[in-house]
Write a structure and sequence with these properties.
Order of helices and strands: EHEEHEHEHEH
Shape: globular
Structural class: alpha/beta
Radius of gyration: 14 Å
Distance between the termini: 18 Å
Helix content: 25-40%
Number of helices: 5
Number of strands: 6
C-alpha cells in the first residue's frame, strides 16, 4: 500500500502536553508519566492512507530559536495549550509569531480539560481565531478522539 506523506508539528509552551498527545496517538499505556522533549522528537503515525510524521517541538525557551526551521514543510501546525488563561496568552503569542508559515493548516488543542478551572475550548477558539478541539491527553479513551481529529485535519 502506498501512503500519502504529511508533516504535522506540535507546538506550544513546555508542559502543555504535546508529548502526551503524541504518546496517546502511539497507543502508549503510561500517559501520566511526564517526558521532557529535548529539542525535537519525531515519530510516525498512520492515519488511514496517510503516513504522518509528527514533530513534537520542545517548548523550553532554549529550543524556541529552532522552531522556524523545524516547521518548514509542515502541512499542519497544532498549537497545544493547557487551557489556562496564562497559557492561552502565551499560545496566542506563538500563533501570532508563527502563523506566517504559508501552506500550513493551523488548529489548536485545548488540552488538560480535566483540570479545575480549564477554559472552555470555544473561549480558546474565540481568542485564537482558529478551530480548537478539547482534549485530555492522559486519558487513553481519547485515542480515538485524537485519531478522528487527525482524520479531519490532515
Amino acid at each position: 500500500m502506498t501512503f500519502k506523506k504529511h508533516k504535522l508539528v506540535l507546538i506550544g509552551e513546555q508542559g502543555v502536553g504535546k508529548s502526551t498527545i503524541l504518546s496517546l496517538l502511539q497507543g502508549r499505556k503510561d500517559l501520566k508519566k511526564r517526558k521532557v522533549t529535548i529539542g525535537v522528537a519525531i515519530e510516525e503515525v498512520y492515519v488511514d492512507d496517510s503516513k504522518v510524521a509528527c514533530w513534537d517541538l520542545g517548548g523550553q525557551d532554549r529550543f524556541k530559536f529552532m522552531w522556524a526551521d523545524f516547521m518548514r514543510g509542515a502541512g499542519t501546525m497544532v498549537l497545544v495549550t493547557d487551557s489556562t488563561e496564562e497559557n492561552l496568552q502565551e499560545t496566542k503569542e506563538i500563533y501570532e509569531r508563527y502563523n506566517r508559515f504559508q501552506g500550513s493548516k493551523v488548529i489548536a488543542i485545548a488540552n488538560k480539560q480535566d483540570k479545575s478551572g480549564a477554559l472552555h475550548p470555544q473561549k480558546i477558539a474565540n481568542e485564537l481565531g482558529i478551530k480548537t478541539y478539547a482534549m485530555c491527553a492522559i486519558n487513553p479513551v481519547n485515542r480515538s478522539t485524537i485519531e478522528q481529529i487527525l482524520r479531519q485535519e490532515v
